[in-house]
Amino acid sequence: MDFDDREEAAFWQPEDGDWLLTKMVTLVNAEGGAMDVTLTVGGSLITGEMIGGTEYFELVGRAFADSQGRFSEFGARLYSSSDIDPTPAFLHMKNAVILCGNRAVPPHGNGMLWRGRIAAVDGFAWGRTAPDTE
């Protein structure tokens, strides 16, 4: 790749979402772990820990008391490294909080599970934020 190709790639924007955010979601889906992120989606801020699809479905299963492990099994199968779509359409968060002015939804606790389309994200920042409580 020569310089012109790299420069063009840095500004390339796919229709289905920001290329850098898409790459980070791909990494988290493949490797696991969590990454603090704040998203701008339709004028709202959503802050929390970006997680992979496998962990997301495992946590959904726990939230719904899925004693059969169906959600976990589905997530593991859907996000297995051999079958994973190289261009994910969704990102997943845990401990997510939606910030509306000085209010947070949910107002107390660790947040909630959140799933959204990468293409709907208008912007993002690495790290978390919180409402101004003063």
Brief characterization of the structure:
The chain is of the alpha+beta class and about 130 residues long. It contains four helices and six strands, in the order ααββααββββ. About 30% of the residues lie in helices and about 30% in strands.
Structural key phrases:
single chain, 134 residues, alpha+beta, 6-stranded antiparallel beta sheet, 31% helix
Would you kindly provide a written description of the structure presented here, covering whatever features stand out?
The chain has 134 residues and is α+β, with helices and mostly antiparallel strands. It has one domain. 31% of the residues lie in helices and 31% in strands. The protein contains 4 helices and 6 strands, in the order ααββααββββ. The longest helix is centred in the N-terminal third of the chain and has 13 residues. It starts with a helix and ends in an 8-residue tail after the last strand.
